[in-house]
Amino acid sequence: MKQDFEQLKEEIKYEKTNSCVQCGYCLPVCPTYATMGKETHSPRGRINLVKMVGEGRITDLSVLEEPMDLCLGCRACETACPTGVEYGSILEAARAAITRRKKFSSPVRTLRNTLFKEVFPSRKAMSFIGNSMWLYEKSGIQKLARKSGLTKKLPSHLGEFEAITPAAVSPQERSSLPRVTPAKGDKKYTVAFFVGCVMDAMFRKINHLSVKLLTEAGCDVIIIENQTCCGALHAHSGELEESKSLAKRNIEAFEREEVDFIVNNAGGCGAMLVEYDHLLADETLWVERAKRFSEKTKDISQILVLCGGIKAKDLSPQWVTYQRSCHMTNVLKVTKEPLQLIQSVPNVEFIEMNDANMCCGSAGIYNIVNYDASMEILDQKMENVRDTKATTIITTNPGCLIQMKLGIERENLKESMRAVHLVEYLAEATGITESPNSVNL
Prior knowledge:
Blueprint: H1 2-11, H2 14-17, H3 31-36, H4 43-54, H5 62-69, H6 76-80, H7 87-101, H8 106-119, H9 123-138, H10 141-148, H11 158-162, H12 171-174, E1 180-181, E2 189-193, H13 198-202, H14 204-217, E3 219-223, H15 232-236, H16 240-254, E4 261-264, H17 267-274, H18 276-279, H19 287-296, E5 297-299, H20 300-306, E6 318-322, H21 326-332, H22 336-342, E7 348-350, H23 366-369, H24 371-388, E8 392-395, H25 398-410, E9 418-421, H26 422-430
Parallel strand pairs: 2-3, 2-4, 4-5, 6-7, 6-8, 8-9
Antiparallel strand pairs: 1-3
Helix pairs in contact: 4-7, 5-7, 14-26, 17-21, 20-22
GO molecular function: 4 iron, 4 sulfur cluster binding; glycolate dehydrogenase activity; metal ion binding
Keywords: 4Fe-4S, Electron transport, Iron, Iron-sulfur, Metal-binding, Repeat, Transport
Catalytic activity: glycolate + A = glyoxylate + AH2; (R)-lactate + A = pyruvate + AH2
């Protein structure tokens, strides 16, 4: 029994909880504490629960389940914390410990295993989903489903998300991205591009545009074969061992090519990739390889700035605001480069929203599994967006992009406001088209 307890203490990273002095600096920046007003839904409250488990004062881990599930994992608390508490590590360890001991129903367990082990890690499976979305759209089924009201009957509010799903690319376009795309003009760097799983399935056009922006900036771009999902969705859902397995697969795949940087275009993915060294810190054979991988990992905005920025054309006067990705801000610490690129576009007036660093409530699949809590956070965010009077919301993460599109729909702003990924905005500003086979400059 004592051995089991000591093992549990190690699992939940109990020693890391001792860094928390319960000062409360995390409270004002925590979205769930702001909307729910409960100590157990604050960072220090959650840490205290984990601490109580490690001290034997809580023996039933199910007590932790709701507070941990309702955490967005935005990690704004880490940025605010004066003592450097590793909240993200504690959160993921607690979720993993809960998941290991939880008895899921057979259908739920089957669904989790299918998604986490067979779907997200498989580029073929994600490509199939992308192609199926294209067929659903082009065959007329989508139009019929929406007109008949069938989509509104989907469970878990999925009909609302279906209504804002981005247009899919054709199977031909999906297969047209070459393994190596050479730089335009003088080569500055050789980079490997991380395509992601959700980005590859749902936002393939953004991936195409990312490659074009990088080549126009002077980068040889390599699409690494055998790369897989970053593992973020797995780690956030308590499937930590599966996340480690995916990390190892990516490290093996990317280290076969000699590149200057590993580039991604999704804040959530980037945060996971850059922390592979922490994820695999206890594995002697992997920690150094993971460290080299993490050191090379960069957001696309960092590389574009490093290459000298973009060659933007004069756009019609417009007002834009920027929805900051939590993971880019709080984990990657990439805050200046996106703004530098946005503000380099002529005739654009940038308006910073109030509480710009506050999470939008997307957080991976949080807005699906915790819809009501997510929408309460989104509604507050949209009040701040409205106040800017911006016509364009720019994001750097697919979850944020979907959430902002949903916010625009909820606020009936579709006629006066749009949400785009930073890559889409920069491509528009430079005259790069969405077609994977042409660049108009």
